[in-house]
Amino acid sequence: MASGSERVFDAKEVGAVLRGRRKSLGYTQEQVATLMGCSPRLIGEMERGRATVGLQKMLDYATGLGIDVILSARG
C-alpha cells in the first residue's frame, strides 16, 4: 500500500492487505487476536481470505489495524 490506497476485488486480496498492515505494525496474529478478543485462527482465516469469515468481522479487523474501507462507484 505504498500510495495509501489499494483496489481489491476479492477476499484473498483483502486478506493480503490486512496481513501486510499487521506485519508493518509489528504484530503477530496472536497479539492482534488478543487485542480484538478473538482467536488467532480467525485472524489467520481473515488473512487468507476465507469466504466463510463474516464481512463485519473483516471490517472490524481492518478498522482495528487503522485501515479505512471506502466504497466508491466506478464510472
TrEMBL record:
Domain of life: Bacteria
PROSITE patterns referenced in this protein's UniProt entry, alphabetically: HTH_CROC1 (PS50943)
All copies of domain HTH cro/C1-type, residue ranges: 18-72
InterPro entries: Cro/C1-type_HTH, Lambda_DNA-bd_dom_sf
GO molecular function: DNA binding
SMART domains: HTH_XRE
Transmembrane portions of the chain: none
SUPFAM superfamilies registered for this protein in UniProt: lambda repressor-like DNA-binding domains
Protein name: XRE family transcriptional regulator
